[in-house]
Backbone:
């Protein structure tokens, strides 16, 4: 350990990034300018450090990995990540000279007084993308374009107001706070957290690291994990990129099961137990029983997450669902962190860029037309079944939607199961948001089942498959569907309960 007088001396030295680099030349493992080719410390990173830490000196990774510190066997109160140093030694970062202190800041003061607060950059602040952006600038710029960089604040605010429900029970914050998700991935389950811990993490998410997913949400900063990319490379991913065991996210699974699913994207992008079976459709009539996040259920055609009827074979295991890397194959071509699809790169070698673009256009038109035709039929039915009542064109809807529009919803016991199945499938397809890109055969199958159900209803003009208005452009048609998705989402947020 360094003696106190050296610390005092260093504290007196004016602190600048330039000086930092010079000072560190004597020590091991600090940010060495030039020789290791790594970019210098950024101003944004320095701004994360406490004033106390700013006076500290670099001590090098070996000192951090001292057996009495982060190189020793696990200690009480430490996580499974200890001994961190041993794991870190095996990473690409270690071979490139990305030491502990490049992410945690200079360590001499922390080394001198390990129990003291504020002498080293720790969680949650160290999980800021600013830390990684020091060296991964271009990639961080891509990430900034993504929705993951943003925050949907409502569920996080709810976590503060009502930690029992939005934290431990519905677990909204495991998918809506990148910080809570880190804790979950490290095995600290939100279900076992105290109200105070949940509130602290949510506060930090609103103020300090305000992202749905930050870099450390998806990457283990210290360790190889064995969860490889579609091309078999180790990128320290916290979860698998490919998983076709759909049992943990199927109907009737618990919130603990689907929010801890071992898939880098489907840990969040799953249907939250979406259930298209009659028992669930009969008991849950207030709002759709799936979330906006059902992309994985759609991709895989997860059994019974749509109302599947009795005309198998149901299309599952499509080429898209079995592609190595699954979501990351299409949404992260060349590791692009904007998560935007590129027809050039994502769809190879299966489609040429032109083929992919043409197919997407054709498929989306087809699915959108079919959804609008289905919607028209449901409207025709409700106008026929509830003649003369104001607002009856949306009486096929869930009760919350109808009441939110200021109308009195019909008794749900009298709404035929056929309509309940049809509206479930309608919402299942629009909420996935890809309009056939993920799994067009399953989307079409669910729409067919919905139509067959309406066919089976007794008499009436609603039975006709009224074609959607042909004078509307694709964008106008899409907007009608998106308005329904938006309306359903607003209702989800307005009401508590089964969401
Ligand atoms: C690439 C950046 C990076 C490097 C290199 C790095 N860390 Fe971390 N460290 C983080 C981040 C981000 C977190 C918070 C997320 C987490 O705990 O997984 C963290 C968390 C920690 C924690 C708290 C863990 C806990 O359970 O609360 C300790 C202790 C730690 N690091 C020590 C080290 C040591 C020692 C080294 C070097 C051997 C090191 N880190 C290298 C980024 C890094
Ligand atoms: C001081 C610079 C620096 C910082 C800070 C840094 N990295 Fe890196 N990182 C690198 C370098 C250099 C490489 C190796 C790149 C190469 O080989 O092309 C790398 C590689 C990686 C890889 C690929 C690993 C592999 O085995 O191929 C991942 C993933 C990664 N970094 C994530 C992160 C994350 C997440 C953070 C923040 C918690 C971070 N890095 C912070 C410099 C840095
Ligand atoms: C921690 C939870 C979480 C993880 C992990 C996650 N997402 Fe997301 N994702 C979200 C949320 C929440 C949104 C909505 C963002 C918004 O509306 O601002 C979203 C939005 C998206 C979007 C819509 C476009 C955009 O950028 O807003 C795409 C595409 C996407 N995610 C793909 C992926 C892929 C691919 C992965 C895996 C590599 C992934 N997501 C991992 C939660 C997550
Ligand atoms: C299994 C993970 C998961 C859970 C649990 C979860 N969400 Fe989400 N949520 C998502 C994802 C992913 C999206 C974005 C989907 C997309 O953009 O296609 C999303 C979207 C949203 C949106 C829409 C944002 C917008 O306007 O675009 C709201 C609001 C929301 N969630 C609130 C909640 C609330 C409240 C809870 C808890 C009752 C909750 N979520 C639980 C994953 C989850
Ligand atoms: C939603 C999850 C997610 C988030 C958030 C995320 N990454 Fe990644 N990252 C991945 C996946 C998945 C891959 C592997 C993609 C592939 O090549 O198939 C990857 C790959 C990488 C690589 C390797 C790039 C290469 O060319 O080999 C680096 C470096 C990296 N990420 C750093 C970061 C940094 C820095 C951030 C924050 C700015 C970040 N990641 C945020 C999921 C994520
Ligand atoms: C076969 C390629 C492919 C696969 C696999 C795939 N996607 Fe997509 N995804 C697309 C395309 C194409 C779109 C249409 C939007 C576009 O053109 O960018 C899309 C749309 C989306 C959207 C809506 C985007 C928005 O802007 O609202 C989300 C969210 C999404 N995908 C997430 C995922 C997730 C999560 C997975 C894995 C469960 C996944 N995707 C798997 C190709 C794919
Ligand atoms: C692993 C191979 C693979 C990848 C990668 C892949 N596809 Fe496909 N795709 C297929 C196969 C196989 C079919 C179905 C067979 C057929 O229709 O010829 C298909 C069908 C489609 C369809 C037609 C669906 C329908 O029935 O209307 C669309 C649209 C599509 N793909 C778009 C894309 C896009 C866009 C990408 C890239 C973002 C992509 N695919 C990536 C293999 C792939």
Residues:
């Amino acid at each position: 350990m360094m003696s106190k007088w050296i610390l005092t001396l260093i504290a007196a030295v004016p602190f600048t990034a330039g000086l930092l680099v010079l000072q560190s030349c004597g020590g091991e493992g600090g940010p060495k300018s030039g020789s290791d080719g790594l970019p210098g410390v950024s101003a944004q990173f320095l701004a994360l450090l406490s004033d106390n830490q700013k006076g500290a000196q670099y001590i090098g990774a070996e000192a951090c990995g001292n057996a009495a510190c982060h190189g020793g066997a696990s200690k009480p109160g430490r996580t499974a990540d200890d001994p961190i140093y041993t794991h870190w030694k095996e990473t690409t970062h270690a071979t490139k000279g990305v030491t502990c202190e490049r992410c945690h800041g200079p360590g001499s003061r922390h080394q001198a007084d390990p129990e003291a607060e504020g002498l080293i950059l720790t969680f949650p602040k160290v999980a800021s993308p600013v830390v990684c952006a020091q060296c991964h600038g271009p990639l961080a710029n891509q990430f900034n374009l993504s929705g993951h960089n943003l925050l949907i604040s409502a569920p996080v605010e709810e976590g503060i107001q009502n930690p029992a429900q939005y934290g431990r029970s519905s677990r909204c914050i495991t998918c809506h706070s990148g910080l809570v998700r880190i804790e979950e991935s490290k095995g600290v389950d939100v279900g076992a957290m105290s109200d105070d811990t949940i509130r602290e993490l949510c506060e930090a998410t609103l103020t300090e690291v305000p992202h749905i997913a930050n870099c450390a949400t998806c990457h283990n900063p210290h360790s190889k994990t064995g969860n490889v990319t579609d091309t078999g490379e180790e990128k320290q991913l916290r979860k698998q990129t490919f998983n076709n065991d759909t049992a943990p996210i199927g109907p009737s699974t618990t919130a603990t099961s689907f929010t801890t699913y071992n898939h880098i994207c489907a840990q969040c992008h799953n249907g939250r137990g979406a259930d298209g079976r009659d028992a669930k459709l009969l008991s849950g009539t207030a709002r759709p029983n799936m979330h906006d996040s059902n992309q994985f259920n759609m991709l895989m055609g997860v059994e019974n997450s749509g109302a599947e009827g009795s005309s198998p074979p149901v299309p599952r295991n499509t080429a898209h669902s079995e592609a190595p890397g699954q979501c990351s194959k299409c949404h992260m071509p060349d590791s692009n962190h904007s998560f935007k699809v590129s027809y050039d790169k994502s769809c190879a070698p299966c489609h040429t860029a032109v083929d992919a673009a043409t197919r997407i256009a054709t498929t989306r038109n087809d699915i959108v037309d079919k959804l609008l035709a289905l919607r028209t039929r449901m409207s025709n039915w409700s106008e026929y079944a509830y003649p003369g009542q104001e607002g009856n064109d949306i009486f096929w809807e869930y009760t919350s939607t109808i009441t939110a529009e200021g109308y009195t919803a019909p008794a749900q016991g009298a709404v035929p199961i056929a309509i309940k199945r049809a509206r479930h499938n309608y919402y299942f397809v629009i909420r996935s948001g890809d309009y056939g890109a993920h799994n067009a055969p399953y989307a079409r199958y669910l729409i067919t089942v919905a139509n067959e159900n309406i066919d089976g209803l007794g008499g009436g003009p609603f039975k006709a498959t009224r074609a959607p208005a042909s004078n509307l452009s694709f964008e106008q048609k899409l907007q009608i569907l998106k308005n329904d998705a938006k309306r359903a989402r607003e209702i989800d947020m307005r009401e508590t309960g089964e969401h």
Notes: The mean pLDDT is 89. The pocket of heme C (ligand 3) is lined by residues 146-148, 150, 152, 175-176, 178, 181, 212-213, 217, 264-265, 267-269, 327-328, 331-332, 339 (CB under 6 Å). The chain has three domains: 4-122, 147-218, 247-494.
